[in-house]
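Morning F.,

Quick status update on the modeling queue. The single chain you submitted on Monday has been processed. Sequence for confirmation:
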Amino acid sequence: MDNLVLVAGFGFRQGALLSSLSEVLDQLETQFGGVDRLAVADSMCSLVQQLGHQRGTEVLNIPDAVLPAMTTLTRSTHSLKARGSGSVAEAVALAAAGPGGQLLGPRLISADRMATAAVARGVMT
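Structure tokens below.
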């Protein structure tokens, strides 16, 4: 049986705090509703793993190599240069949502501008 899921993907700067990720996730859930899973690039997983543990939410690690293949709504030049993707948050959300996954909107940015999050809808079998 197929189930629709909402996946929150994260991107963040070196030095970001757990509170930055938590705040941007709160923004995301206020706008789109609760998420079923969190997603993060393998190279950035530690902080999101902490957030998942804190919230009791499964975290999906996405290989960094898939990020450039994802079509994002945002085209950050910084993100393109650093990671090969217009938005790491959008790319990992899409990758975690699986084939046919769709972004529900562009990434949101934490108040301190250290973290971003985006949500994608997908079907998990």
